Amino acid sequence: LDRMLNLTGAAAISVDKTPSWSVRDSVTFEGTGGGIIKHDAGVVFTSGTENTGDLTFRGVKFVSTAGAGAVLMDCDKLLRCFFLNNEYRDWDTIARQIVNGRWAQSMRFHSEKIIGGAGPAFLFRESIDCTFDDILCEDRLAGTNGAFFHNSEAMAVIANRNLRISNCCIENISGIPIK
User: Fold this and answer.
1) How far apart, in whole angstroms, are the C-alpha atoms of residue 44 and residue 27?
2) What do you get for the CA distance between the two ends of the chain, in Å?
3) pTM across the whole model
4) Rg (CA), the chain
5) For residue 81, which of 44, 106, 111 has the smallest C-alpha distance?
6) Residue pair 57/81 in contact by the 8 Å Cβ criterion
7) pLDDT in tens, 115-150
8) Fewest CB within a 10 Å sphere: which of 39, 64, 118, 165?
9) What does the alpha-carbon distance between residue 76 and residue 103 come to, in Å, rounded to a whole number?
């Protein structure tokens, strides 16, 4: 991406790949000064097929308006996504998984900059094998819902299996950072 794409008012981008455990061709979004703008509520990336995955985002800028309700990734459908050196400005939810019986799986976030936004940057009802490493998260409005990571429901089972949050700087937020 060498320019900013304004997806305000646009329908979600559906990444539809044939799920395969043996062939994992990755779709890569490489930021070379560009990225995605969305100043309204709604999801940017989803899929019509469950368990679609192998997306990579490197050096991409994501710009929104805090409180608008923009969601980048629908983790009820997408899995095995890798994020490296991206920047999120006033983006409300980066990754969301909310459907009972589904889970966020193998999501990797490394060296990300999350500045601004409202509510939890990562909202997972359940997750398996997710990593958040070397992330700067600051200036978010969270209330009681967790400004960085929020497990959306109290569950009778372990909701987040093999969840790793390490070397992150979470600062200058309102509310609880991780819940």
Assistant:
1) 15
2) 34
3) 0.89
4) 15
5) 106
6) yes
7) 999 888 988 888 889 999 999 999 887 655 567 877
8) 39
9) 6
Q: For residues 69 and 90, is the Cβ–Cβ distance under 8 A?
A: no
Q: What is the token pair recorded at 26? A: 């990755």
What lies within 8 Å, CB to CB, of 146 at 6+ separation is 120, 175, 176, 177, 178, 179
Beta-carbon contacts of residue 167 (< 8 Å; ≥ 6 apart): 133, 134, 135
